Amino acid sequence: MDVGKSFSYVFEDEQWLTKVLIGGLFMLASVVLVGIPFVLGYIVETLRNIMEGQAKPLPEWVDLGEKFKKGLLLAAILIVWGIPIWIIACFQVVVTAIIRDSSSLAGLVTIVSCLTSILIILWSIIMALFEPAIFTRFALKPEFSSGFAFEELWRFTVDNIGNVIIAVLLSVVASVLASFGVILCGVGVFLTSFWAYLVMAHLFGQVYLQRKGGAGEELTAAL
């Protein structure tokens, strides 16, 4: 994988500053949830362009309605995938509330907290590993059902597990680097966070372009 390209391709676009500034504004609007669909929709279109091999994949900030629609669908998919985390967290809260006043069961509270925390971490890792497949499949076929074609998602992830792990870990690195945007009076974090999303899109696009196995062929068929 061309790691350097993923972190720098944004700046090869002549209008990168304008596009990132607009993206940063939508990231700012994400604080009140409004901007999330627009950001995700833009990332999906960027990913699609990367998968098609476009030299300068950053799309224009046009057709906002279409971006919103795609982003909202993808957000819904990710929310559904995250339901087990909410269920586990609610279970932890309920059990803790029931037994916390019993001194004889004090140790059980700790055990429950540890077990539920481990389960949440494990499911978060599973979600992260499936994200390249979810994002690329949705970019090819922006439908709600694309996020739950479990057989295809599984095969794509397993067949390309090496690149998937690299892409996920580097996406985390980009997010950590983006956190330094706080230094720019707090506002800069929205710009750098949007850049981190764009880095993630390029990394996921590279996983698709370097895919192996039948899952890749099935995803291509969605074009």
Main beta sheet: none
Would you tell me the structural class of the helices and strands?
mainly alpha
Mean pLDDT: 88
Shape, per Cα inertia axes: globular
Q: Give the low-pLDDT segments.
A: 214-219
Report the helical percentage.
over 70%
Distance between the termini: 23 Å
User: What gyration radius follows from the Cα positions, in whole Å?
Assistant: 19 Å
* Separate helix tally: 10
**Portion in beta strands:** under 5%
The total tally of domains equals 1
Total number of beta strands:
0
What is the H-and-E element order? HHHHHHHHHH
Q: Your description of this structure?
A:
This protein is mostly helical. The chain has one domain (3-220). It is 73% helix and 0% strand. The protein has 10 helices and no strands. It has helices at residues 3-8, 16-29, 36-51, 64-81, 83-99, 106-140, 150-159, 161-178, 188-209, 214-220. The longest helix has 35 residues, at 106-140. It is globular, with a radius of gyration of 19 Å. The relative contact order is 0.15.
